Amino acid sequence: MTEQVRKSLQQMKAEYDQDRHLYGKVFHHYKSGDDFQLLFPVWSEDTNEKTAVFVLCAMPWLKFERPFSVFKETFVEGPAEAVREKADV
Fold it and tell me: What is the pLDDT of residues 22-69, one digit of tens each?
């Protein structure tokens, strides 16, 4: 097993700033049809992987975590109504 080098605070800050405009916004999940709010990222100490922390808008006490890259692939920015309007254009 190879030992991974931990990311520096500057590297994590740069990654945070890269997606800062997404935090606090609502995203729509195509498969479930539900809206979620992206709260913030966290980094795994073991793998250095950036993970998205988000909540279901209808039940904000339900917190979820998913790799950030997967989150960006499976969610589209905007609530369900806005996503449908964009698709109709």
Answer: 999 999 998 888 999 999 999 998 888 999 999 999 999 999 999 999
Taking the domains of the chain in order of start, what are their residue ranges? 9-88
Quick one: CA dihedral 53, 56, 60, 61, positive or negative? negative
Q: How far is CA 26 from CA 32, 75, 79, 89, in A?
A: 15, 10, 6, 20
- We find that the CATH architecture of domain 9-88 is Roll (2.30)
Residues 30-64 as b or e (16 or more Cβ within 10 Å = b):
eeeeebbbbbebebeeeeeebbbbbebbeeeeeee
pTM here?
0.81
